[in-house]
Design brief:
Low-confidence stretches: 11-19
Number of strands: 9
CATH class of one domain: Mainly Beta
Largest sheet: 4 strands, antiparallel
Distance between the termini: 93 Å
Mean pLDDT: 85
Shape: elongated
Helix content: 25-40%
Radius of gyration: 23 Å
């Protein structure tokens, strides 16, 4: 009798962990991905009470480790060709946020939208120019995009923060490997406006960002009136 009970427990444990493993369609999806990339895919696509899941904070940690590992402030200075003595006109500004174009998306338990694309932007200023470095990466694979821009203060017409409506996918269809429907959400962005052009990047809304934008607007007015 004891042997039968032990056997049943062993079988039960085996079945439980088997059910907890990733389904075959997901394994195909993340084949040749790194451990953190597989975890990112699990965060967005795992469903069901027995599925292997990541919490919102687990995913946030993946994003933060990636950002910290990139050393983007120094990468920005190297890419633009600046040193610290040249960028003392305003306090350097770092903007961060998710981008939702062609990305996995999820509405977290904390009522926040996240995606598999994240953008970090550094803004520096010299006496005559504004320098921008933007780096966007994917958490589910190795994709990335770097962008640098330079604007003369005299050409800039405005700085602004704005809410932009984006269409994101919801309800993943594992058979079709696509989202079943779409939903409109509000995202926060920052823009530098020059004649005929507008630089836009992701920016999480915060008092720090708003204060920085006000300081940049004040500097712009000062440059225009000089």
């Amino acid at each position: 009798m004891v042997f039968v009970i032990i056997l049943v427990l062993i079988v039960g444990v085996f079945v439980f962990f088997k059910m907890r493993s990733d389904p075959s369609w997901m394994k195909k999806l993340y084949k040749d991905r790194s451990a953190e990339q597989r975890d990112a895919i699990r965060y967005f696509l795992s469903e069901g009470c027995l599925a292997k899941k990541l919490s919102d904070s687990d995913y946030d940690a993946i994003v933060r480790r990636k950002v910290d590992s990139l050393n983007l402030r120094q990468k920005a200075l190297d890419k633009i060709g600046l040193d610290e003595d040249e960028i003392k006109e305003i306090e350097p500004l770092c903007l961060e946020g998710y981008r939702f174009e062609k990305a996995y998306t999820k509405f977290g338990e904390d009522k926040k939208w996240r995606s598999s694309k994240y953008e970090v932007t550094w803004i520096f200023a010299s006496d005559k120019q504004l320098y921008i470095y933007s780096y966007m990466f994917n958490t589910d694979e190795d994709g990335k995009r770097e962008r640098t821009e330079e604007y003369f203060w005299k050409d800039i017409t405005n700085f602004s923060t704005m809410s932009e409506t984006k269409e994101v996918g919801v309800d993943w269809d594992e058979k079709k490997q696509e989202y079943k429907s779409r939903k409109n959400i509000d995202t926060q962005e920052f823009a530098v406006v020059v004649p005929g052009e507008k630089f836009i990047c992701a920016a999480q809304q915060s008092e720090v960002v708003e204060n920085a934008v006000r300081a940049m607007k004040a500097k712009l007015r000062e440059k225009k009136s000089a």
